[in-house]
Known about the structure:
By secondary structure, this protein is α+β, with helices and mostly antiparallel strands.
Amino acid sequence: MDKPDLTRAIAAATSVAASLGLPVDDATVLHNSNKLALRLTPCDVFARVAPVGQEVARFEVDLAQRLTGAGCPVCPLEPRVEPRVYGRDGFAVTLWTYYEPVTPHTPPADYAGALERLHAGMRGIGVESPRFTDRITEAEDVVADPDRSPELADADRLFLVGRLAGLRRAIDDRGAVEQLLHGEPHPGNVLSTGDGPLFIDLETCCRGPVEFDLAHAPEAVCAHYPGVDRALLDECRQLVIAMVAAWRWERGDQFPNGRRFGEEMLRSLRAGPPWPTLDTLTGRLDGR
Length: 288
C-alpha cells in the first residue's frame, strides 16, 4: 500500500481492535504489499488488512476455524473477539493470534511434516474453493491485457502467454489426484512458533495436486515430503514462476522490488531447468 492508504489501513486496524476492548498503543508493519500485516501492541494481536473487494477474508476466516478445529497447523484467529471480518473505512480487517518467532527459519523436515499434516486435514474439509487453474487464468488475464501490464515488453508478453497455456495443458493432462491446498505455502507464510510451524494467509486456498503447493516451498522441504511426483513438481515450479512473474508486471502491484522479481523470473524461465524455487529467486535478488 502506498503511504496514504497505509496510514488509513493502520488506523482502521487499531480502531477495530480498540472498539473490541483490545488495547493498542502501537502498530508495527510486518509486511506491506497489496495487503497489510500488522502487530498490534500491547494487546499482541496479528492484524491483516486489505481494501474491501480485494480480499476473500470471509472465506479465510471460515476455513481457519474449520482447520484449527480439525487440529491442522494453521494460525488461529484471535480468541478474545468474535471470529469474523471487521469493516472499517473501506478496509476489511481480520484479527489473529500473534506468535513471537522462536527461530529464524523452520527446519525443512518440520516444514514438510506440517505441510503434510495440513494436506491431510484439508482432505477432510468440505468447502467450496477455486481450482488452481483459476490462478493461471488470473495471471493470463494480466499478461494478455497491455492496459493491465503496460511495462511488459511484447516479446515477454507472448512468451508468458505461451508458457502459461502450455503448462496448464501439461499439468491437466497428467490427471493427478487433486485436493484442497494452501495455495501459497512459501516460507513467508510459515510461522516458526513454540507450537511448531503454523501456516498463515489462507486466502489463496484452491484445489489441485499437492505438487502445486510444494512448488512454493524450498527444495529441502520437498525432499522430506513423501510420494512426490518429481516430473509434476517440475512443471508446477515452472507454473508458479510464470504466474508470479505475470503478477509482478501488473499495473499497481505493490510487492517490494516487484519489477526486479518479474525480470528475474522471466530470465529463469528462459534459462530452463533446473527450475529454481521461490526462496532461491529471492536469495538471488538479495545477493545471498
